[in-house]
Write a structure and sequence with these properties.
alpha+beta, about 220 residues, 11 strands, three-stranded antiparallel β-sheet, about 20% strand
């Protein structure tokens, strides 16, 4: 099934230009793996960028330019990454790239329960100071507590389906929410829903849970 909820064109352009942060870039990369339409859009942006580069004259580089580049790299790139091996039943149904990051996370932490039926795994990717990068597993027929947002939230469906006040989101669909949105995502019966969720600010629970959250200073 082809996704029906896509990133805006400006976000795809930023991905093609390499200007997104690691967490948001991962969300877009995973969407592209599942969405031929957006892959074509990115290919168009990259082709246009290549034509622009060809039109620019060469510029002399410093003798130590390559050494400077290496010093700026935060994470070494593996030429031949080892196959992913995981016995985690949640990771096993996800794309290989996410399996690898999830396995790295499980080496130092574990899934934690948010509310009954909902489990969260924090992923080791840099994001905003008060942001999060998480895999969230919602059991079939279960839901995340109703909440709004102090900033932006990117939610990509990797397995299953969820519904909320804004629509129906299946595998590959991307939902982008901000402080104007209040919702309660519910997984459809019959299959667990797993999403990759990236925020740049904390979520704000509503109702009685929100009162408790605020009383604890969150």
């Amino acid at each position: 099934m082809t996704p029906s909820h896509h990133p805006p064109l400006e976000l795809l352009f930023d991905y093609a230009a390499g200007t997104l942060g690691p967490a948001t870039a991962l969300v877009i990369e995973m969407h592209l793996a599942l969405c031929p339409h957006c892959r074509d859009e990115v290919a168009t942006f990259e082709s246009a960028g290549g034509e622009l580069l060809e039109a620019i004259g060469p510029v002399a580089m410093a003798a130590d330019a390559f050494d400077q580049l290496l010093r700026r790299l935060d994470v070494p790139v593996e030429a031949n990454p080892a196959p992913v091996e995981t016995d985690d039943p949640i990771l096993a149904v996800l794309p290989k790239a996410i399996q690898r990051i999830g396995a790295q996370a499980l080496a130092t932490t574990k899934w934690r329960t948010l509310v009954p039926g909902v489990r969260v795994l924090d992923l080791p990717l840099p994001t905003a100071p008060k942001g999060t990068v998480q895999l969230i597993k919602v059991g079939a027929g279960r839901g995340v507590p109703r909440h709004t947002h102090a900033g932006n939230e990117f939610t990509l469906v990797l397995n299953g389906v969820f519904n909320d006040e804004n629509g129906h989101f299946a595998k590959g669909d991307l939902q982008i929410t901000d402080p104007t949105v209040t919702h309660r995502p519910l997984a459809e019966p019959g299959e667990m829903c797993v999403v990759l969720a990236v925020t740049d600010a904390p979520l704000r629970l509503t109702g009685m849970l929100g009162v408790i959250q605020r009383s604890l200073g969150y």
